Amino acid sequence: MEICNKEVCSIKQHCGGCIYQGVDYAEQVELKGESVKKLLEEKKLKTGEYIGIEGSPKIYNYRNKMEYTFGNLVKDGEMTLGMHKRGQFMSIITVDECQLVDDDFNIILRAILNFCNEKGYKHYHKRSHRGLLRNLVIRKGERTKELLINIVTSTESEFDDDAFVKMLLDLKLDNEIVGILHTYNDNLADSVVCERLDVLYGRDYYNEKIMGLQFKVSAFSFFQTNISAVERLYTEALDMIDDVEGKTVFDLYCGTGTITQSLAVRAKKVVGVEIVEDAVLAARDNAKLNGLDNCEFIAGDVLKVLDDITDKPDVIVVDPPRAGMNHKVLPKLLNYGVDQILYISCNPKTMVDNLRFMEENGYRVVKIKAFDNFPFTKHVETVVLLSKGEVDSKKIRVEFSLEDMDMSEFQDGATYPQIKAYVLEHSGLKVSNLYISQVKRKCGIEVGKNYNLPKSEDSRQPQCPPEKEKAIREAFKYFGMI
């Protein structure tokens, strides 16, 4: 494990990024590991094998992307470029000595700030919504040493693109600039929104290599920030899953498809779902680049896509955003009844809530391991393997045929999940509790008092379609209910 050997950052007290500056790295890792354990204990989760936490291979210069903001530190003060001052939304502190990024990032930041000051450009004011300069985004290919530079402005006044490009190309850098971009953004939100993009030099993407695969990362695609650390995380995470050869895998919240394509090397088919269209387009291009024809990428909200997708997974991998998985997504996910779910989390707080729900609905945590992929910051990554039908962390797989079962125990009492499972297996149709209760009433089968009844006589409920009613009646017959 690398040790802290640099002086504490001079702006530690003001920048909101590195809360662990001045703390020995081994202690940082221990503190983060304890924080994950505490969250698991608070939720009283049965965690199976808790493997602990692993530190990052690099603790300095590891970030491959930074999004900076133009502003000032004090009202009417000189223009700054960097990060929001801790606890002060309107104040921006220049961060041209940051220890988390490649030194070229700091050189570029300072050169651009000087260039804009010399030109007399004004920063965009968040309240008045006036001014030209909004953001600077720098991205780097860790393995390829390629740089992508993106200046974000409003359309209030002219920006000298030609002089900007010349200034950047004259800089002495260790990495190669492969693209210089100008994004126009008049959106009122305090975020980088691309309303128009001009390529001023080179291309609008950089290349990266990870997990033995090649990736084109476009200007606005999500891509993991600490390459060496996430490669190790992905390797260990995928090793947790039983052999996926010949299986269909869902990779939900897949980004540019790093995990999707790593799985596709071994699996029969992998379906990646991602809401950001730009990332999906990049994922498709990357799959072609790597010669993988068993990947399918769907652009859309996971919540809606799961209603329309026709494939049935054998394994599910999820890597949700910091907010975790929507509470409406989880039941849909669990209804597939797959043996294993791999959950990769960037936020342990939302993760434990999701895990609690999954545990209450038949899944158990088999293994869990934390990773510190963001040294000096508060962030922790966690990988969890969940399995259906686990007891005391030892897998018990029970295989049986419905035809071999004694069905007498189900007289008038087959559960709704059992009926749903039978209908799905024998007709391929998904039916709701509402439809089952409607057919029960038609067949004279007792339904719980007021169960799924309309709230008033004027209320209208969707009625069970004939083909689903027929399938439900077949289930009733099978379970000896009619």
| Relevant CATH superfamily of the largest domain | Vaccinia Virus protein VP39
CATH-level-2 architecture of the largest domain:
3-Layer(aba) Sandwich
The parts where pLDDT drops under 50 for at least 5 residues are 390-412, 455-459
User: N- to C-terminal separation?
Assistant: 67 Å
CATH class of the largest domain: Alpha Beta
Structure description:
The chain has three domains: about 25-60 and about 220-395, Rossmann fold (3-Layer(aba) Sandwich); about 65-210, OB fold (Dihydrolipoamide Acetyltransferase, E2P); about 400-480, no CATH class. The strands form four sheets. Strands 1-16-17-15-14-11-12-13 form an eight-stranded mixed beta sheet, sandwiched between helices. A seven-stranded mixed beta sheet has the order 4-3-2-5-6-7-8. It has a two-stranded antiparallel ribbon with strand order 9-10. Strand 18 and strand 19 (about 395) form a beta hairpin. It is α/β, with parallel strands linked by helices and about 475 residues long. The protein has twelve helices and 19 strands. The termini are far apart.
Would you summarize the structure shown here?
With 482 residues, this protein is an alpha/beta fold. It has 12 helices and 19 strands. The strands form 4 sheets. Strands 1-16-17-15-14-11-12-13 form an 8-stranded mixed β-sheet, sandwiched between helices. A 7-stranded mixed β-sheet has the order 4-3-2-5-6-7-8.
